[in-house]
């Protein structure tokens, strides 16, 4: 795709993706425990300028899993009632690394403030509990699907590089990701 076409695609899609993220209150999490056993769950989130923040209890399975393995997959998903077709719901998925945020850090204060601004004083109460941990989710490769035949690969810093996936939406193979990292 030419640079001009790529730029037009970015200018059109990035605001749409940002609006889609802002409309969602929760994200779906695919985590795994120390033995690699998968778990699907969800968590309310807040988006700050440096990533997604979630506050989860280590008593919950996903809270334990994130401490055991910091690799996860995340999905923001259009509500079924809003979708034109349940077969082609809008969704944003991405691979991410979960970073446990130290309680006495500026990042902890920033993440809790972002969550509190979005969800109110309940966040402050939960953040004060010893079993709740703040994680910053750092996205890597992503995929935005807005309908049939409309899948767009997202990569680069803050997932700002857009590529229309004309060959389906299978994501980037691990070998290609390793190549990009080198």
The overall number of domains is 1
Measured distance between first and last alpha carbons: 23 Å
* Poorly predicted residue ranges: 171-182
- The CATH architecture classification is Roll
Radius of gyration: 17 Å
CATH class: Mainly Beta
CATH topology, anyone? Pnp Oxidase, Chain A
Percent of residues in beta strands: 35-45%
Helix content: 25-40%
The mean pLDDT is 85
What is the CATH homology-level superfamily?
Electron Transport, Fmn-binding Protein, Chain A
GO molecular function: coenzyme F420 binding; oxidoreductase activity, acting on the CH-CH group of donors
Keywords: Oxidoreductase
InterPro entries: F420H2_bilvrd_red/Heme_oxyg, HutZ, Pyridox_Oxase_N, Split_barrel_FMN-bd
Protein name: Heme utilization protein HutZ
């Amino acid at each position: 795709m030419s640079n001009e076409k790529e730029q037009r695609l970015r200018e059109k899609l990035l605001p749409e993706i940002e609006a889609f993220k802002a409309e969602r209150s929760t994200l779906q999490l695919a985590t795994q425990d120390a033995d690699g056993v998968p778990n699907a769950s969800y968590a309310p989130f807040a988006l700050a300028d440096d990533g997604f923040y979630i506050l989860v209890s280590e008593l919950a399975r996903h809270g334990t899993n994130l401490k055991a393995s910091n690799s996860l997959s995340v999905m923001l998903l259009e509500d079924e009632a809003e979708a034109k077709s349940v077969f082609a719901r809008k969704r944003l998925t991405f691979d991410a690394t979960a970073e446990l945020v130290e309680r006495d850090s500026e990042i902890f204060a920033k993440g809790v403030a972002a969550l509190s601004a979005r969800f109110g004083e309940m966040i402050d109460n939960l953040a004060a509990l010893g079993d709740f941990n703040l994680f910053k989710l750092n996205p890597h490769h992503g995929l935005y699907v807005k309908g049939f035949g409309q899948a767009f690969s997202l990569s680069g810093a803050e997932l700002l590089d857009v590529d229309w996936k004309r060959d389906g939406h299978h994501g980037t193979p691990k070998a290609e990701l390793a190549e990009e990292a080198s």
